[in-house]
Amino acid sequence: MRKPFVAGNWKMNKTIAETRDLVSRMSLKLSEISGVEKVLCPPFMSLLAASALLEGSGIGLGAQNMHWEEKGAFTGEVSPAMVKELCGYVILGHSERRAYFNETDEIVNRKLISAQTFDLTPIVCVGETLEQYESKLTREVVSRQTSQSLRDVSPAFAARIVVAYEPVWAIGTGKASNGLEANAVAKDVIRPALAGLFGEETAQAIRVLYGGSVTSSNAAEFFSQPDIDGALVGGASLKIDEFAAITESAAV
Ligand code: PEP
Fold first, then answer.
1. Phi, psi of 71 (to 5 degrees)
2. pLDDT tens for residues 43-85?
3. E-assigned strands of 30-79?
4. Distances (CA, A) of 131 to 37, 127, 213, 243, 250
5. Residue 94: active-site member
6. Mean pLDDT in the chain?
């Protein structure tokens, strides 16, 4: 049995003051929902404020990115040791990182190995661009991203990894994929790639999320699919009622 998982990626939104306000109101609602692992991922600057407010709430805290090195001359970067002081989770390889900051599968993999070292639960994002989707390259691209981004970690740690299938054309566009298509990628592409790395049993234990314009109106369509275990939510995670409704519909 894979426990459902819903994470909110706030991206570059909310100041510290705004975070305090949103987290305190949102956590009241989310705390009432059980049967689902819940994680909020505000910007780095807001993690300290959010961690104080979330203590004892049963809601996890995640960073949206990190460097792979523990420390050193990497101006402007945040290390896994710093993330670990406040967070239990970290998003790795989000398509915006891949597109705007040139993150490759190799870089994502270094960060993943670092997450293993620092005992952080990673949410690793994979997904094809619109051009790749239209050229029918989804399977090839997602399989390669999964195999290369997730290599070289121990099977025990692998079972903790959360994979988010996020078609780039569906992120922030209001054009979500559909349940059947997303499930087919999870079942026929991501899980076989995971099985190739870690064996069938571990592949079946790893949570696979869908992400891309998830709202309270379409969430149930994705969560009713057997190989989709929850969602990584962007825009809708900034709206209390929307995010609570999505979280509720993932709960078992
Ligand atoms: C995301 O940023 O991971 C995402 C899925 O965004 P949105 O829900 O806004 O499409």
1. -165, 175
2. 999 999 999 999 999 999 999 999 999 999 999 999 999 999 9
3. 37-41, 60-63
4. 33, 12, 18, 30, 31
5. yes
6. 98
Q: Whose CA is nearest to atom 7 of ligand 1?
A: 234
Distance CA 86, CA 66 (A): 13
How far apart are the C-alpha atoms of 221 and 214, rounded to whole Å? Answer: 10
What CATH number labels 5-250? 3.20.20.70
Catalytic residue among 37, 67, 94, 221: 94
* Residue 127, Cβ density class (10 Å: 0-12 exposed, 13-18 middle, ≥19 buried): buried
Q: Active site residue: 96, 103, 128, 166, which one?
A: 166
Q: 134: pLDDT confidence band, cut at 50, 70 and 90?
A: very high
72 CA → ligand 1 middle, Å: 31
What's the whole-model pTM score? Answer: 0.98
DSSP string over 158-214:
HTT-EEEE--GGGTTSS----HHHHHHHIIIIIHHHHHHHH-HHHHHHSEEEEESS-
CB atoms within 10 A of CB 163: 27
Distance CA 160, CA 13 (A): 28
Token pair recorded at residue 89 = 């989770």
CB 247 within 8 A of CB 30: yes
Q: Are 88 and 40 in contact (CB under 8 A)?
A: no
What tokens appear for 83 in the block? 């993330």
Joined together, the tokens standing for residue 110 give 């270094």
